[in-house]
Write a structure and sequence with these properties.
Number of helices: 6
Structural class: mainly alpha
Helix content: 55-70%
Number of strands: 2
Radius of gyration: 22 Å
């Protein structure tokens, strides 16, 4: 709130007064209602927001996982973190270039599919034999999607209440 107040007080408005619109709180709420009811806006906004949440979860949890659970030294963890950060930068630049030639929906669907593959590869590469026996057949037999990798545009996916949360079911 302090930052917002300082921005309001210190940074001048750059839009000329004749171009400004004054609709009040009701107008603002009407615009927001239009945005959150528009699937073309809300789906990418949610995916982006959840991706940022995952990023912060990774930043806060990765020292415990790499150093605490896997025994990586501080130097090794620093190297791993740097490699992951570099991969994110490369991915962001690649995404910007791909968006010049492909629709965002197509790239989002591809990214979510790759997320499924990455989840399976993680179980294959790092999972114990018991974990592989437990998770891989279930993923195939029950057509499970996990690792936050489902297509939010698929109208065939339904969330059904379960005893410990929700179960996502689809075609």
């Amino acid at each position: 709130l302090i930052c917002a107040g300082l921005v309001w007080l210190v940074i001048p408005e750059t839009l000329a007064p004749k171009h400004r619109q004054r609709h009040g709180l009701g107008g603002i709420l009407k615009v927001w209602a239009g945005l959150v009811s528009d699937r073309r806006f809300i789906v990418p906004a949610l995916v982006g927001g959840l991706a940022q949440a995952c990023m912060f979860a990774f930043i806060t949890g990765s020292p415990f996982v790499f150093m605490g659970l896997h025994g990586a030294s501080a130097q090794a963890y620093g190297g791993l973190f740097a490699l992951i950060a570099a991969a994110l930068i490369v991915g962001a630049n690649l995404n910007a270039r791909l968006l010049r030639h492909h629709a965002p929906e197509r790239l989002l669907g591809l990214a979510l599919g790759l997320n499924v593959v990455a989840g399976l590869a993680t179980v294959l590469a790092a999972g114990s034999p018991a974990q592989q026996q437990r998770w891989l057949p279930a993923v195939v037999a029950e057509r499970q999607f996990w690792g936050n990798a489902l297509n939010p545009l698929d109208r065939g996916v339904v969330a059904e209440p379960a005893a410990d949360g929700f179960v996502l079911r689809g075609r």
